[in-house]
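Hey team,

Sharing the 2-hydroxyacid dehydrogenase run so nobody has to redo it. Sequence (331 residues) first:
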Amino acid sequence: MEILAFGVQADEKPLMERAFAGHHEVRCLDVFLNEDTAPIATGYEVISSSVNADLNGRVLEILSAGGTRMIAQRSTGFNNVDLTVAERLGITVARVSYYSPHSVAEFAWTLAMAVNRRIVRASTRTRDFDFRLDGLMGRDMHGRTAGVLGTGRIGEAFARIAHGFGMRLLGWDVAENPACLDLGMKYVSKEELLTESDLVSLHVPLMPQTQHLIDGAALRAMKDDAVLVNSSRGGLIDTVALVDELRAGRFTGVGLDVYEAEAGLFFLDKSLQAIEDDTLARLLTFPNVLVTSHQAYYTVEAVGQIVETTVSNVLDYRAGRRSENVLVPRS
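Structure output:
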């Protein structure tokens, strides 16, 4: 059987081909799955989608009409999939429940330190042989307070690094993580966390109840000189409200690896085109903001685990097995 994989990055392709070798053929495409590209999947029983695929009801209907019966999503998040429609159409959907939490946690810290110590501005200056220090002063993280919204595997890994810096730890989640408690983390309300934290990092999934978790009120509750980092899902932050606060001169730095309207932008080369998204364009003008293109997960270890789990999900589907990765079981 040949599997069709959408949205495969150049670095990811050899890992995909190697992992599927001896099991099934895999055809890798760099285009993302959406309503325009879904007809390409006609005749493929199994497809694999990336995190930025648009698997709304209409796309699923096109896939179903073309013979697709299984979707193996190469991500943990699945807010882009209409699971109700998938179940109605009898399409099995599986995801990657787990991959290296260190990849995302370490990148979140990379963003935090980059904006705190003005690394991008410093690098740009030195390339122009400008070696002044004006405007590059950062702050010690040691002794300050880190607020971790979401203390699952990734949040815990982030907290361990913060603990290594010698930071006070505040956490917010629906359930307390014993490992975080062992680090000395104190669980508090979201409001208290935002008010007291010098660094706020988001590690919660995007669901209806977490959409714009960080809205205008939450942003206004934060310290004027706080650092805000989001390496989870773009929809957790109300970006329009964030731009308003940045215009007011607030925050030491903001590091974003995700953006709520990133579909159709991230993972693509738009350098020769006019960007029609006024909010993103404005966001990128602030010198204390660093935006990267959803790359926190992008390490050899994490992508390797994602690919291997994707292969396992396909093999389980073919064998009629069900695992914790299955969101919609085989009918």
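The chain has twelve helices and 13 strands.

Ping me if you want the raw files.
A.
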